[in-house]
Design brief:
Layout: H1 3-34, H2 38-62, H3 68-84, H4 87-95, H5 100-123, H6 133-136, H7 139-142, H8 146-155, H9 161-190
Helix pairs in contact: 1-2, 1-5, 2-3, 2-4, 2-9, 3-5
C-alpha cells in the first residue's frame, strides 16, 4: 500500500471516528435526555465511559507514546461490547414503541459496531507499532500521528506534547484501574445488568 493511500485511509478513519464516536452519541444523549428515554441515557453514559479510551489514545499519540496503538485497538473492541452487553437495557430499548429517536439510536448502535469491528481488524497490522521502536518510527506508524497533531494545534496550541501526554498517561492509569475493578468486582456482582452501574 502506498503512503498516500494509507494517509488518506487514516484521515478517513479519523473523520469517521469523530462522527460515530463523538458527534452522533452526543446528539443522541441530548435527544434521549430531552425525551426522557432512561434506558438510552444509561447506555450512552456507559458508552462515554468506555469510549473515553479513544480520547486517551488521541493524547497518547500527541505525546508520541507507542502504547496508543494498543489502547486504540482495545477501545475498538470494548465499544461494541459496551453497546450490546447489558440485557436489561437491551430489553427496555426493544420494548420502546417505534420512533425517530429509537430508529436513529438503533442505526447508530449498528453503524458504530460495524465501524469499530472493521477498525479493529484494520489495526491488527499496526499493533507492531506499539511493541517495536523501529516500527514505531517508520512512516507506516507515524502517519497515525498526523490527525492528532492537527487536533493539538487547533485546540491545545499553547501546550507541549509532553504536558498533554502526562494527562493521557494519568487518564490511562485511572481507566485501567476502573476497568479492572469493574471486571473483578462489579461484573461478578451485577452480571449483565446495568442497573447497578449508575
Amino acid at each position: 500500500m502506498s503512503q498516500e493511500l494509507l494517509r488518506s485511509l487514516v484521515w478517513m478513519d479519523f473523520r469517521l471516528a469523530v462522527l460515530f464516536t463523538v458527534i452522533l452519541p452526543l446528539v443522541l444523549l441530548i435527544w434521549a435526555t430531552v425525551k426522557h428515554m432512561d434506558a438510552m441515557q444509561r447506555l450512552l453514559i456507559i458508552y462515554w465511559r468506555v469510549s473515553s479510551l479513544l480520547a486517551i489514545t488521541l493524547y497518547l499519540l500527541i505525546g508520541n507514546i507507542p502504547i496508543a496503538f494498543l489502547t486504540s485497538f482495545l477501545a475498538r473492541l470494548l465499544i461494541p461490547i459496551s453497546l450490546w452487553f447489558w440485557n436489561d437495557i437491551n430489553e427496555e430499548i426493544a420494548d420502546q414503541p417505534p420512533s425517530p429517536l429509537n430508529l436513529t439510536f438503533t442505526s447508530w448502535r449498528w453503524a458504530t459496531t460495524i465501524y469499530c469491528g472493521l477498525g479493529t481488524l484494520a489495526l491488527i497490522p499496526f499493533l507492531q507499532c506499539g511493541f517495536s521502536t523501529t516500527a514505531y518510527q517508520s512512516p507506516f506508524c507515524q502517519v497515525w500521528r498526523e490527525a492528532p497533531l492537527v487536533f493539538k494545534d487547533t485546540f491545545h496550541n499553547g501546550y507541549t506534547p509532553g504536558f498533554l501526554a502526562f494527562f493521557a498517561i494519568l487518564g490511562l492509569i485511572i481507566y485501567t484501574l476502573y476497568l479492572a475493578y469493574f471486571v473483578v468486582v462489579r461484573l461478578g456482582r451485577q452480571g449483565r445488568s446495568a442497573m447497578a452501574d449508575q
